[in-house]
């Protein structure tokens, strides 16, 4: 951390002398940033003369789970605080009241606006877009309009590429719409550069097709908020009046558009406070840029730094300190435990062994990939799981008149969400198929009931079993039979469970989650699962500044309060010695451990 002379060291129990200046709090994991933030909000509520019934503190954090934690900790004080994610905040205070100002300029059908969602891109929408593309006559063999539109694989290439549309800011702080060219790669072949250059011209027209239907993607919330503020600056004044204090936790994962919005809000009247840690920046794939935290500037901003770790045992902190080179955290006096352990062996066996040893205490597994987390949840073996089965299904069952994937994929996602008690999200999946009318909502509920009550009949069978149930008992018309061919082979030979493993459970609160979902949380006992010994480089040659992969693992191990375990299938003697020589972790080979040996060889 680049600590300037003006950076003031504080403790997570400290109060600021003056609540009326912008601030930045920098600190490592477990330092008590969220703890401090909650106390600071209470301080503001207590001392500020600028708050009343309609003037509140805005507190922005990254996930709905974090929102709940902060609300909980605020207790009854939370009436005067609006705690939310940035998307919910902007939707409520900018999009809903003001989108109608600019809706016509963007062809947005405001009468159909109904929240924001993760909008899935359909091939029919891609086709509609191609059919009206400004450059369609310039598209040439092998990617002519007809070839892009009518060859299923090409259509998939365009659709996949369009799914990566993002908004960013250019050097003049103007919004630009981009899509990631590499995402057109299907079956080893991408669209050509020439073709993509021609198509790129009209990306906004593609968004307009959705906006015409009142569909608002999460990213569109940022896009429209920014446009509204730029074109109608009085909206900023309204926000500043309503929120004299604007505090943001986990700032390191903000996107450049969010950062610019906050900077604009903080230009006058509103006090902006940002809290974060650049070494915990793990969302670059969503546009976050770790350098923004330290470079964020507002007039008179003061920097504070917390150098303690109030979460973990000294043994866990020793490992964290080894990995981090910009500063060292101090632990709490006398809070000691066992050295972290690296287990070498099959991860499911490791999980069972640790669970046995912890005898009933809760162990949380953290994995990089969603499919690994799901496999651990469902007790499935293997490291070579196919996380692309939904893509394969769409590709293989992709003839123009097949509506099967459009139904069966939401069904699988819905029932898996339902089994994790995410009923609202489950119904939302099915509403993608049935629509959002009252009838659509009723149909979604009926189908969810059917899928859930018959789960045991298909959960360990080929996908065809589920499809047959849908054909015979869902009441949905027009579900076509199979002829011999690749789609039938896929449905006959692919086990439902394989697809279930690919479902992403948002805000997963189970004991087996991805590292990204563990952000901000802490657990007594943590098991980090790794797929190969290369992934232990974050310990042997750590580089948090340049490697997001290393930061991700740093975040994972810093969730542990008491016991930290890491598992890897194999470990060469050379690398094991390298790690052993650090003296910070014990290494146990599972085979040896069966005879209670902790020896290396
Ligand atoms: N001053 C304090 N007194 C008592 N407990 C504290 C104090 N500060 C922090 N804690 C406790 O330490 C733990 C870590 O705090 P917190 O979650 O706020 O850290 P953080 O900096 O936000 O962590 P991360 O960035 O890793 O998510 C929590 O259990 C919190 O309750």
TrEMBL record:
Keyword presence, Transport: no
Record carries keyword Nucleotide-binding: yes
Swiss-Prot/TrEMBL keywords: ATP-binding, Helicase, Hydrolase, Isomerase, Nucleotide-binding
Entries under InterPro entries matching the protein: DExx_box_DNA_helicase_dom_sf, DNA_helicase_UvrD-like_C, DNA_helicase_UvrD/REP, P-loop_NTPase, UvrD-like_ATP-bd
EC number: 5.6.2.4
Domain of life: Bacteria
Residues of the UvrD-like helicase ATP-binding domain: 6-313
Pfam families (alphabetical): UvrD-helicase, UvrD_C
Residues at which ATP binds: 27-34
Catalytic activity: Couples ATP hydrolysis with the unwinding of duplex DNA by translocating in the 3'-5' direction; ATP + H2O = ADP + phosphate + H(+)
Family: Belongs to the helicase family. UvrD subfamily.
Name the UniProt record assigns to this protein: DNA 3'-5' helicase
């Amino acid at each position: 951390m680049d600590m300037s002379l003006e950076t003031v060291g504080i403790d997570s129990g400290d109060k600021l002398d003056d609540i009326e200046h912008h601030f930045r709090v920098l600190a490592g994991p477990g330092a008590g940033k969220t703890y401090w933030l909650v106390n600071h909000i209470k301080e503001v509520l207590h001392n500020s003369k600028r708050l009343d019934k309609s003037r509140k503190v805005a507190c922005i954090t990254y996930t709905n789970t974090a929102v709940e934690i902060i609300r909980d900790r605020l207790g009854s004080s939370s009436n005067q605080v609006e705690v939310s994610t940035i998307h919910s905040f902007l939707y409520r205070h900018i999009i809903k009241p003001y989108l109608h100002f600019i809706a016509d300029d963007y062809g947005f059908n405001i009468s159909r606006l109904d929240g924001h969602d993760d909008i899935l891109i359909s091939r029919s929408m891609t086709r509609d877009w191609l059919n009206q593309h400004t450059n369609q006559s310039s598209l040439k063999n092998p990617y002519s309009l007809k070839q892009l539109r009518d060859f299923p694989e090409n259509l998939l290439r365009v659709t996949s590429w369009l799914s990566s549309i993002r908004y960013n800011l250019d050097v003049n702080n103007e919004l630009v719409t981009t899509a990631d060219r590499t995402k057109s790669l299907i079956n080893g072949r991408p669209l050509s550069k020439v073709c993509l250059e021609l198509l790129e011209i009209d990306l906004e027209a593609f968004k307009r097709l959705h906006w015409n239907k009142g569909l608002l993607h999460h990213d569109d919330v940022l896009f429209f908020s920014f446009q509204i503020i730029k074109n109608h600056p009085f909206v900023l004044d309204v926000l500043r009046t309503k929120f004299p204090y604007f505090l943001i936790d986990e700032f390191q994962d903000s996107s450049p558009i969010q950062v610019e919005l906050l900077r604009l809000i903080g230009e006058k009247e509103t006090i902006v406070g940002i809290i974060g840690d650049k070494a915990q920046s793990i969302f670059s794939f969503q546009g976050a840029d770790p350098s923004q935290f330290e470079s964020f500037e507002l007039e008179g901003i003061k920097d504070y730094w917390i150098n303690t770790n109030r979460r973990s045992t000294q043994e866990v902190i020793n490992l964290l300190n080894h990995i981090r080179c910009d500063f060292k955290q101090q632990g709490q006096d006398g809070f000691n435990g066992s050295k972290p352990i690296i287990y070498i062996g099959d991860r499911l066996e490791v999980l069972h062994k640790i669970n046995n040893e912890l005898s009933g205490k809760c162990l949380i597994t953290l994995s990089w990939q969603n499919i690994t987390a799901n496999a651990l949840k469902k007790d499935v073996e293997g490291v070579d799981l196919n996380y692309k089965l939904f893509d394969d299904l769409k590709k293989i069952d992709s003839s123009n008149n097949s509506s099967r994937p459009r139904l069966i994929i939401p069904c699988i996602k819905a029932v898996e969400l339902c089994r994790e008690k995410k009923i609202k999200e489950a119904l939302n999946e099915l509403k993608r198929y049935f629509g959002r009318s009252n009838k659509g909502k009723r149909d979604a509920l009926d189908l969810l009931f059917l899928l859930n009550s018959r789960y045991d009949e298909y959960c360990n069978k080929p996908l065809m079993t589920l499809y047959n149930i849908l054909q015979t008992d869902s009441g949905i018309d027009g579900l076509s039979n199979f002829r011999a061919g690749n789609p039938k082979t896929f449905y006959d030979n692919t086990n439902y469970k394989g697809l279930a493993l690919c479902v992403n459970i948002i805000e997963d609160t189970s004991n087996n989650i991805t590292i990204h979902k563990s952000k901000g949380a802490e657990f007594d006992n943590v098991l980090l699962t790794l797929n190969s010994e290369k992934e232990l480089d974050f310990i042997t040659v750590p580089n948090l500044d340049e490697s997001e992969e290393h930061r991700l693992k740093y975040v994972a191990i810093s969730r542990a309060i008491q016991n930290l375990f890491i598992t890897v299938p194999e470990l060469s003697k050379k690398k094991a010695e390298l790690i052993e020589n650090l003296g910070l972790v014990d290494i146990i080979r599972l085979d040896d451990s069966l005879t209670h040996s902790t020896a290396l060889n």
